[in-house]
C-alpha cells in the first residue's frame, strides 16, 4: 500500500510541504445522507504536536476527526470527498487498506471503552495478538512499555489479569490509550477524552497528552477551552462544518483573527 520512497518524495515536493507536516487535508467534504456536515476543510497537522479542535456542539468536530482515519465511512449512508494525505499519500486512494490507516491513526473515544470480558493485559495486547503476534517476550515488552507510556503501569502492574472494566474511569481511559499505542500508531485522535472524567483524572490525561507528543502526533477534540490552551500547540475553531480559524493556540486565544472566533472563545455563543 505504501508508495516507494522516491514517489513519496516527489509528491512531497509537489505539495511544497510545511516543515514537520504529517497530515494535510485538502477540500474535505462529508455527508450523512443529504446532510452536508463538513464543508471544504483544508488544514495541515504538524507532527509531534498537539492540535486541538474546538467549536460548538454539532459543528462537525467528531465527524472531522473520524474522516482522518476512515471511520466516517463506516456509518451507513455516510460519504466523504476530498483528500487526507498522510505522509503525502491520500488515505482515500484506491488500494489503500482502511484497517492499516486505522492502525497508523488510532482513536480514543469520549467514553472509555475497554473490551468488556478482557483482562487489563489482553486489552492492551488485543490488536497485536489479532495481527498474529505470538512472541511472548515481545508481547510482555509491549505491555509494559505501553502501560508506562500511558502513565498506568504503576497502578496496574499487580492487576494485569483483572478485568479492564474493574479499573476506575480515568484508569480505563488510560488503558484505552495504552491499547491504542500497542499497535504503534503515528497519530492519535482523541474525541473529548476527558469529558466523562473528574478533574483529577482529567489532569492526568492532560499531562499524558503532552508527554505523548514526543513520539506521536495528537489531535484532540475538546469542549473545554482551558484544556485546549493547556495542552495544544495549535488550535482549530470549527463552526457549521467549516474551519473558521486555525493558528498557534496562544494566538488563537489571545488575539484571534476572526470575530466569530473571538465571540466563541469569550462565551458569547456555543
Ligand atoms: N451517525 C450520524 N448520523 C447522522 N448524522 C450525524 C451522525 N453523527 C453526526 N451527525 C450530524 O452531523 C453533524 C455534526 O456532528 P458531529 O458529531 O460531528 O458534531 P460535534 O462537533 O462532534 O458535536 P458534539 O460537540 O456535540 O460532539 C450534526 O448535525 C449531527 O447531527
Ligand atoms: Mg463530537
Polypeptide structure, described:
This protein is of the alpha/beta class and 270 residues long. It has a single domain, classed as Rossmann fold, CATH 3.40.50. The protein contains eleven helices and ten strands. The strands form two sheets. Strands 6-7-8-3-9-10 form a six-stranded mixed beta sheet, with helices on both faces. Strands 2-1-4-5 form a four-stranded antiparallel beta sheet, covered by helices on one side. Helix 4 packs across helix 5, helix 4 runs parallel beside helix 7 and helix 5 crosses helix 7. About 4% of the residues have low confidence.
Order of helices and strands: HEEEHEEHEHHHHEHEHEEHH
Look at the helices and sheets and give the structural class.
alpha/beta
Radius of gyration: 19 Å
Query: What is the CATH third-level topology name?
Result: Rossmann fold
Uncertain spans, ≥5 residues at pLDDT below 50?
9-18
Oligomer: single chain
Calculate the terminal CA-CA distance, rounded to whole Å.
42 Å
CATH class: Alpha Beta
Q: Just name the CATH architecture.
A: 3-Layer(aba) Sandwich
Largest sheet: 6 strands, mixed
Q: Give the full name of the CATH homologous superfamily.
A: P-loop containing nucleotide triphosphate hydrolases
Mean pLDDT: 93
Ligand catalogue: adenosine-5'-triphosphate, magnesium ion
Secondary-structure map with pairings?
Layout: H1 5-14, E1 21-32, E2 35-46, E3 50-54, H2 61-68, E4 78-86, E5 89-90, H3 98-104, E6 105-108, H4 120-130, H5 136-149, H6 153-156, H7 169-181, E7 187-191, H8 199-212, E8 217-221, H9 225-231, E9 234-239, E10 242-248, H10 249-254, H11 259-265
Parallel strand pairs: 3-8, 3-9, 6-7, 7-8
Antiparallel strand pairs: 1-2, 1-4, 4-5, 9-10
Helix pairs in contact: 4-5, 4-7, 5-7, 7-8
